[in-house]
Amino acid sequence: MGLLVEGAWKDQWYDTKSSNGKFVRQDSMFRNTISGEEGAVYPPESGRYHLYVSLACPWAHRTLIFRKLKNLETHISVSVVSPDMLSNGWEFGDYPGATADDLFGVNYMHQVYTKAKSDVTTRVTVPVLWDKQSNSIVSNESAEIIRMFNSAFNELTGNHDDYYPESLQAQIDEINDFVYPNINNGVYRAGFATTQDAYNEAVVSLFDALDKIEGILSTQRYLTGDRLTEADWRIFTTLIRFDPVYVGHFKCNIRRIQDYPNIFEYMKELYQVDGIAETTNFDHIKRHYYFSHTTINPTQVVPQGPLVDLDKPHNRGA
Ligand SMILES: N[C@@H](CCC(=O)N[C@@H](CS)C(=O)NCC(=O)O)C(=O)O
Asked: Where does the chain bind glutathione (predicted)?
């Protein structure tokens, strides 16, 4: 794990000393948009864009889900990094389910970043949406990539399904603003904390938030009512990793997702949506966290469990 400093790779774990043991996630730095508007720098074109993902990563998983739901698979190609993220950061390789770098044939993800900007100073994160035409990074912010996938390619695909409908945008934004710090990033704030106080604060706000979500899902099918939206997909990628990884590896063990009847059934419903199970790779998920975070798990031993039947019929909407 490391970062690029003026284009040079530096192997270094997260600095939590300057923040009292708290993990503070950095903002993504490439923030352009694909748009069908006249004169747009990045117009929606088939075959022009390439997505770099890790199957382990919850943020990258969102983008794979939207690529699937919006029928973008034939329009946007994908490279998958190996789940092992060690001293060179994300790398390509022959781990089952991973690929080579299909565009440049480089070994490391940081080399893709320096192809976009040779003197860049940044963490090297996935997902990355790459523009093959200008050889630049459109975006490395999943929240923005899924919005582009939701609407920018509609004319090309003929798929007008809308996961961010205008009538629900305020509600979706409100849920996202609650779920992101407390749950999506909350598991990382608990797991990467290096003081007891920082961990305590994160884990308590995480489970308070999950209790609240359980309450919401006890009265309605989805987070904003009876329609499946972006807000649901954004929480899903954290929920599906929770019992296999976050409970043990990140010490988020006050309760399991299986202990929340409504969240568990809801998570199964989302997992069973057409195409979603194939975007979910539990081997990469478990291997990445347990094998890569050697400050947390120095033995790199990956647990076998848990045994959970995600294909069992759910009771949502019954
Ligand atoms: N805000 C970014 C976060 C992406 C992110 O942090 N990805 C993790 C993998 S789960 C990563 O690549 N971490 C490497 C690092 O921090 O050096 C997004 O949502 O796209």
From this structure: 90, 123-126, 141-142
